[in-house]
């Protein structure tokens, strides 16, 4: 078992990061301990690190089963950039020639290769199975594991054969990873991979930096999209269409209007498709117009908007695709253009398929329709779909940002609950609405539901309103939907209690989608976090020049947050550069010289006093105690040990540190915070201060919960927040 400090050293040395995100460390530790592991982590949460880092530490070669050639190439390139040894990562798939495959096998047998990416189709080939049988396999990683489930948005039958092949090659621990899975899909994955006893790590699906909006899809949608793109000049974007034909047409229209874009879909020649993808990654074009075949696992961190020309076939697909925006934590606008007739068209396409498949497809489309038409907080709806509850509205989606008119729904909710019980919880929402409306359909008559007391009891109400009541009752926890049985509605214990003692139930009507929405760009703020925008721009130009010369995507060299840090702290030596987040020794050595030279020139020409130079000067004016505290923190001495050495209570020490931070000196107590607190708790307090109106402790404790957090914990994270955000 590796210690926290050992894992941190490996992380810094191999990837240049100072700390783990979310529950990455616990996941990696579980893999190192030889246990089966199930990881449910949203796009941008850092899934790939969960198998990349342990593969470098463990003996043998890790086999990563991945569905897309583009994804493999992308990740192998990234791994090689982090390492000085090109053989560290390889892939085997249909795109390789025989000599290339022989080279891969030679590297693996020599022990150089720690990560081998294999497509499921390649994994089933007899000669590959025979070759892999001779290897010491550290573990198997099944990426994009939702492909296993028929309820997943990207079902692939060949994924169902993975477990038998693993058994044939040789048993080793399995880590399954996916960015989107409802509870039903999660169970399917674990059952099919024979890992029902795996430890499950589920990260929050909430991506606070993404802005969600649904707009009416008018007859002039192309014009609307062109107008929007022009308002986002110079930013990277992805536009998703459902059909290949629409991809070609829209890409052509945009190009004719002077917009830098390329098409991408599975029907194109693979070389052209690959070239278009690379041009997007290398920032030779701003926009890719694509079908859902694009972007799965493509780690371009600075996609600033994701537009849906058509609504996708499922909410899982929608979440996965929007998740490609703002992966670096920066701005990400997710705007979908919705017209009911598009979903109707998709329903018609399903006719003629097996009944079970039609049932699944229809259920998934209904969820998409509900999301598009609802006026409830979009983030709340999305998280609820994935089994996660958001207590308060997000305040930053289109629904939250426009005034909503609430109406009292107590009576309608009571009618809905009574009707669900009257039909013994064996029917879907549409059937319940038909009963309440008094619709004499064939099903209503055959089940004699026209004889129920509640039949036609809401005949004056609009269908959309009744569906909104059902959906909002689900979010409130009164009703649950049995997705495995195609969406049958059942009452929860809270729903049964509500029937005995009804209370006020304010609801919002669904949207009619008749009016144009406001421009999202007016509501969402972009921009850089760098202190020196001019230097940031110069560094980006240098990165682009290097990326062309070295033929690697710009973000492989340095990601935007690293450039922002350089344009804030002005590193001028190799040691200082290595302390920039996301750089590390390997990257500094590989790419650093030209960046340092450029920063030195900029500092000299503009007579800039760097924070590093200032620090000594500001410290010198402080009391001896403050100087001593800063020096102790720089040496990473535990805060309780510093307090003891200075004869202070921990609260008194925090008084001194707060005075230092408030006076403008930047300090870093992360080393101590991560020893005594969970990363999730740190993030939660940090996020509170990020949106709070005051930095006072009392309101913070009240909001966060005094039972969950101590005053000392909140004060320490406030120090981190003030130092990082304020200084």
Provide a descriptive summary of the structure in words.
This protein has 727 residues and is of the alpha/beta class. It has 5 domains: 4-202, Rossmann fold, CATH 3.40.50; 210-401, Rossmann fold (3-Layer(aba) Sandwich); 406-508, Arc Repressor Mutant, subunit A (Orthogonal Bundle); 533-608, HRDC domain (DNA polymerase, domain 1), CATH 1.10.150; 612-726, Orthogonal Bundle (Arc Repressor Mutant, subunit A). The chain has 35 helices and 17 strands. Strands 3-4-2-5-6-1-7 form a 7-stranded parallel β-sheet, with helices on both faces. α31 (650-662) packs parallel to α35 (711-726). Residues 514-526 and 614-622 have low confidence and may be disordered.
- Sheet bearing the most strands, described? 7 strands, parallel
Give Rg in angstroms: 28 Å
| Unreliable stretches | 514-526, 614-622
What sort of overall outline do the alpha carbons produce when their principal axes are compared? globular
CATH-scheme architecture of the largest domain: 3-Layer(aba) Sandwich
CATH class of the largest domain: Alpha Beta
* Span between termini: 38 Å
The overall average pLDDT, rounded, is 84
Q: Strand sequence of the main sheet, in spatial order?
A: 3-4-2-5-6-1-7
Strand fraction band?
5-15%
């Amino acid at each position: 078992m590796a210690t926290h400090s050992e894992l941190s050293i490996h992380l810094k040395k191999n990837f240049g990061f100072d700390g783990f995100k979310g529950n990455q460390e616990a996941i990696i530790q579980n893999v190192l301990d030889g246990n089966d592991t199930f990881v449910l982590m949203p796009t941008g949460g850092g899934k790939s690190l969960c198998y990349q880092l342990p593969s470098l530490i463990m003996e043998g070669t890790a086999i990563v089963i991945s569905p897309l050639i583009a994804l493999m190439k992308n990740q192998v390139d990234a791994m090689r950039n982090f390492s000085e040894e090109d053989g560290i990562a390889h892939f085997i798939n249909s795109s390789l020639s025989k000599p290339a495959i022989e080279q891969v096998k030679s590297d693996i047998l020599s022990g150089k290769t720690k990560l081998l990416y294999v497509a499921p189709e390649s994994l089933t080939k007899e000669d590959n199975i025979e070759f892999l049988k001779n290897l010491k396999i550290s573990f198997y990683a099944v990426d994009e594991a939702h492909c296993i489930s028929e309820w997943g948005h990207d079902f692939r039958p060949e994924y169902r054969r993975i477990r038998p092949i693993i058994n044939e090659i040789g048993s080793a621990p399995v880590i399954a990873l996916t960015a989107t899975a409802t509870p039903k899909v999660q169970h399917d994955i674990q059952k099919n991979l024979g890992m029902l006893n795996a430890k499950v790590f589920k990260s929050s699906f909430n991506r606070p930096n993404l802005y969600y909006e649904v707009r009416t899809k008018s007859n002039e949608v192309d014009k609307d999209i062109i107008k929007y793109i022009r308002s986002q000049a110079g930013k990277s974007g992805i536009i998703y269409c459902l059909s290949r034909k629409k991809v070609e047409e829209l890409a052509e229209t945009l190009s004719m209007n002077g917009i830098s874009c390329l098409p991408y879909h599975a029907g194109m020649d693979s070389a052209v498709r690959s070239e278009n993808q690379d041009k997007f990654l290398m920032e030779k074009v701003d926009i890719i117009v694509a079908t859902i075949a694009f972007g799965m696992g493509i780690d371009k961190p600075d996609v600033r908007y994701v537009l849906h020309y058509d609504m996708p076939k499922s909410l899982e697909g929608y979440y996965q695709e929007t998740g490609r925006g703002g992966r670096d934590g920066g701005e990400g606008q997710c705007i979908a253009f919705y017209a009911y007739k598009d979903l109707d068209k998709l329903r018609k396409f399903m006719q003629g398929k097996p009944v079970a498949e039609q049932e699944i497809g229809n259920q998934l489309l209904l969820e998409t329709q509900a999301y598009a038409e609802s006026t409830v907080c979009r983030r709340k709806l999305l998280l609820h779909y994935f089994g996660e509850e958001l207590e308060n509205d997000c305040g930053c989606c289109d629904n939250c940002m426009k005034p909503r008119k609430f109406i009292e729904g107590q009576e309608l909710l009571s009618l809905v609950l009574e009707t669900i019980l009257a039909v013994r919880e064996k029917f879907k929402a549409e059937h319940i609405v038909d009963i309440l409306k008094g619709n004499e359909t064939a099903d209503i008559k055959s089940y004699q539901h026209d004889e129920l007391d509640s039949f036609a009891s809401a005949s004056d109400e609009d269908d959309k309103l009744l569906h909104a009541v059902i959906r909002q009752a689900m979010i409130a926890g009164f009703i649950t939907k049995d997705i495995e049985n195609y969406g049958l509605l059942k009452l929860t214990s809270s729903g049964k209690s509500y029937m005995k003692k009804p209370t006020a139930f304010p609801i919002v009507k669904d949207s009619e989608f008749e009016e144009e929405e406001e421009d999202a760009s007016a509501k969402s703020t972009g921009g850089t976090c760098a202190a020196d925008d001019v230097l940031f721009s110069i560094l980006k130009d240098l990165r682009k020049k290097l990326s062309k010369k070295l033929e690697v995507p710009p973000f492989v060299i340095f990601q935007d947050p690293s450039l922002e840090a350089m344009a804030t702290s002005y590193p001028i030596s190799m040691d200082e550069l290595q302390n920039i987040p996301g750089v590390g020794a390997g990257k500094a050595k590989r790419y650093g010289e030209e960046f340092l030279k450029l920063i030195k020139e900029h500092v000299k020409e503009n007579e800039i006093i760097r924070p590093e130079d200032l620090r000594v000067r500001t410290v010198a004016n402080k009391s001896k105690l403050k100087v001593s505290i800063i020096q102790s923190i720089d040496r990473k001495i535990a805060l309780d040990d510093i307090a003891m050495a200075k004869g202070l209570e921990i609260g008194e020490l925090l008084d001194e540190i707060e005075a230092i931070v408030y006076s403008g000196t930047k300090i870093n107590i992360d080393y101590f915070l991560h020893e005594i607190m969970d990363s999730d708790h740190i993030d939660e307090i940090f996020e509170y201060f990020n949106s709070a109106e005051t930095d006072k402790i009392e309101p913070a404790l009240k909001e966060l919960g005094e039972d969950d957090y101590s005053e000392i914990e909140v004060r320490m994270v406030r120090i981190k927040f003030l130092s990082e955000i304020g200084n």
